[in-house]
Amino acid sequence: MEDVTHTKRDxxxxxxxxxxxxxxxxxxxIVGGYGFIIWMSQLVLGPPTG
Length: 50
Known about the structure:
membrane, transmembrane, transmembrane helix, mainly alpha, Nitrate reductase NapE, 76% helix
């Protein structure tokens, strides 16, 4: 079995990857996906009536 050592540098790289890259990309994907679903539903079902 390999002896894996995690250093502060590895943890910092992982944090930057998660906080700077993955979290904003995931937020944009979720908001964009929700907007796309609303847009497509309005194309199929018509605009909201009030």
